Amino acid sequence: MNGSADYACLAGGAMLLARLDNRGAQWVGCTLFAAGVLFATPAWADQTLMVEDNARVECVASQKDLTRISLVDDAFASVSKVQPDNPLEDFSVVNEPTRGDIYLSVPGGFKAKALSFFGTSKKGFVYKFACRIDAVEAQQIFLSNPGAAAAAKSADADEGDQQAPDLDETAVRLVQAMAGQKVVPGFHMEKAALVLVRAGDVTVQLLAQYRGLDLMGRVLRIENTGKAPVDLEEAQVAPADAVAVSIASPRLEPRQVTTAYVVTRRTVPGS
User: Global pTM?
Assistant: First the structure.
């Protein structure tokens, strides 16, 4: 339906609905009114277009206001157009860097009936635009390319494969994150302030633990309370089955404090 037919449906339907004495007229009026509501599309409605690589994109650009062109699952990296000799025959194409959208504007006195230019996306797709100029308010044009969506899913899958390290690599990353006091994806960090555990002249205190699906990371504070230096070994601060152990300062002078990071397999109660 075109715009006039749409609103004719609405108007005619409303009139027939008012015929309270005629159920047949009311039924026809209801049908016409519903059709008008469903299919009426104002000239300033957002434009959503399906496109593919190297496609010609036909759209409507505003004569006096801005026209925004946005890509779904992609962004524009650059735009290209011919630079005319006469400034009155030129129009503005701005590639906004934050979101990667394109903004079009037409100067007063612009005589051409359409705009023509090329846009290249960050994923390497190229589109040729042929935008008809109409006296409508600001426009929004959304382009959806199934190829771009498929590329995004493929990239996410590849990234997921790259970010699925084995247990040992995960343990090393966990130690590095604990040492840097960073949030670790997939792990829940819990602060702790447990009672000191003393082993001779050495005291050990649990400061924090990182709880993951398969691994458990612990941050330990170790202090030498004696009068002689102490050389720390991994076996003194971690169980024999620890996946990874790191001691910031293995040799402690009297009253010196260090931090140890221990990663163990997480055990399930009852297993």
Answer: 0.43
